[in-house]
Amino acid sequence: MTDGTLETIDGRPALRFERVLAFPVERVWRAVSVPDELRAWFPAAVDWTPAVGEILDAGGASVEVTEVDPPRRLAWTYAGQPYSFDLTPDGDGCRLVFVHVIDDHGLAAQTAAGWDVYLSRLEPYLSGRAVTEEEAHEHWGETHERYAARFGADPEPGRRFAAALRGNGDGNGAA
């Protein structure tokens, strides 16, 4: 497992994840840019081309595609937060770097745990083995606690978020 890191980009907290995948850059590019492929492993997909300047609605917030350089770089903003995928060859495979610039350091652990879960679905998807949402989230709580400790973040917001999703509202994030 490769953990994400918390960095600073333009004075804002940013989550960075790096994965080495056993698939060529062109194959990974399709997985990160084609809506039907994104739906299989990413938390949300919009019906983008993608093309620079394209603006779409995603759950009431705007997605704007800001950079497209196939098959190397795809960047967009969602609700004012920048996101990007950068792909480079790595031997016979591909090095993927995903960056999400966030607004609230207090949500860094929760957000990192979520991205960790979704990025863990990518390689199985590319291998033809789908990982369900339930399977992917099985260890979300432990992952969240690890990120909270590493980032020096208060774990309570993430625990409350997890409890609310589970409908138990007890705030302990227990499964």
Automatic annotation (TrEMBL):
Domain called Activator of Hsp90 ATPase homologue 1/2-like C-terminal: residue spans: 23-126
Signal sequence, start to end: none
One Pfam family per UniProt: AHSA1
Domain of life: Bacteria
Family affiliation: Belongs to the AHA1 family.
Protein name (database record): Activator of Hsp90 ATPase homologue 1/2-like C-terminal domain-containing protein
Species annotation: Nonomuraea coxensis DSM 45129
Lineage, top ranks: Bacteria, Bacillati, Actinomycetota, Actinomycetes, Streptosporangiales
